[in-house]
Task: structure prediction
Amino acid sequence: MQRSQSSTILNQQTIISQEDLLISRTDPNGVITQCNDIFVKMSGWNKEELLGSNHNIIRHPDMRQVIFKMAWDHIKNNKEFYGYFKNLRKDGGYYWVFAYITAEVDSNGVTTGYASYRRFTPQEAIEAISPIYKILCLAEEQGGVISSEPLFTHYLEKAGFGSYDKFIVDVRLSCFSRNLLKR
Ligand SMILES: Cc1cc2nc3c(=O)[nH]c(=O)nc-3n(C[C@H](O)[C@H](O)[C@H](O)COP(=O)(O)O)c2cc1C
Result:
């Protein structure tokens, strides 16, 4: 059964621990079929409420449609997707994750569903990503994903990344190296 996202939005962040791995699986339409205990806990819903719901139940309004479009374009073409997601909790708070999403394919090559594995996001990555999401938000408010997609591509090219995948890897690596230098 599809449930509605929380309609309350609170500026209240919950930080996941560096050891946590939040897992969910969906059918080919993005309806949640499995999830682990820490995914359930962070969402604030209970497992019965999550199973059978569309994955957008945890979509935060600050997340941009262009990111989800890229995610679906990747996984529908059997390409792995990495991205930073600000997810909405049932209580209206939020938590950031670094998400990996991949297709699950049977021995006949048929996609049986998708799976996502999410980890802690360093503050530096949140600071790098949030302003970009804000710019994309303005573009989407004015012209939807048709406006934000070319804007994002242009931004990536101008910043010398060439592709979204390279951009994500670079943000991740620069956060790791900064954290290593701090030790
Ligand atoms: C395996 C898998 C995991 C997903 N994980 C998330 C997630 O953590 N947060 C999220 O907002 N959307 C996630 N999505 C994307 C949602 O299916 C959906 O595209 C997104 O929330 C935007 O929904 P909307 O276009 O209906 O607003 C995931 C999709 C799949 C297939």
